[in-house]
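User: Can you model how iron/sulfur cluster sits in this protein?
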Amino acid sequence: MRELLHDAHGRRISDLRVSVTDRCNFRCQYCMPAEGLPWLEREEVLRFEEIARLVSLLVGLGIEDVRLTGGEPLVRRGFPALVAMLAAIDGIRDLALTTNGYLLERDAGALAAAGVGRVNVSVDSLQRDRFFALTRRDALPRVLRGIEAVAAHPEVRPIKVNAVAMRDFTEAEIARFCEFARSTSFQVRFIEFMPLDGDRAWRPDAVLSGAELRAAIEAIHPLEELPREPAATARVFRFADGEGEIGFVNPVSEPFCADCNRLRLTADGKLRTCLFSLHETDLRGPLRAGADDGELAGLIRGAVWRKELKHRVGEPGFRPPPRTMSAIGG
Ligand code: SF4
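Assistant: Here's the modeled complex, given as structure tokens:
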């Protein structure tokens, strides 16, 4: 009987986020400086076969859900081929994608055919000029076309739209996002701004909390909370009149670490046991040095056993990880 991955806090680990690149074609202010960041060299980045081998090994240890992220995963050349390699691995229950949507119109068909089962698209504003101001790309119409393109594939569900919530920006977006959630089949989720930005400009008072957003929404639309799935990151509500769903991911104001089941693999082959980890376990080095599956599994089990109980954002002495969001992949 295979021994499933558990940490020292008794949490079963079954969800893997895989960052396939640190590169991105956007420059979102809450993530990256306008000039971008020093990218990983080509040889530092895991090759498709290496990603597939590590994912397959991790699935053998009990991982069931795999989410592909970046940077922006669709900028990685040949990405649909990687999706197909991973979709062929027995034991993956859910193969998901997080994207900024800019290349979705081009790739939607190939991604659906390759085996992507669900998609989260990051859209922080539904107003073209404000979208441009925040992402430093005039791309909203193209992103919305991309969402429509993937929506044309009924095998890719659900489709969720994630908006990072920032004080003195997102308040002016609430009504439009409510209408968007109510007039489409896409679930909208607001995600609290986290101290993982490249500019290190995050401040606690820049966080617009889920509770504040929910209160503003309930002033116009009554909401009913839906049951929370185990290890879910979002609190999801439906509009009381039945028109759509809206969610809140509140890692800062309402941490959900108690039943965290997540692991992360970075584009350069480091295993991260928490979004805010200050430590990482190198898998690329041993893998390229010829380690067998048993040795790699030992490294993984050791790292998972040491998984942090929770993040310490807002606590005295909190230190953001040296790696920023674009190189972790959310
Ligand atoms: S902050 Fe870390 S422990 Fe908490 S939910 Fe996220 S990954 Fe899990």
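A couple of observations from the model: The pocket of iron/sulfur cluster is lined by residues 251, 255-257, 260, 262, 274-276, 308, 310-311 (CB under 6 Å). The first strand starts at residue 15 and ends at 19.
User: Helpful, thanks.
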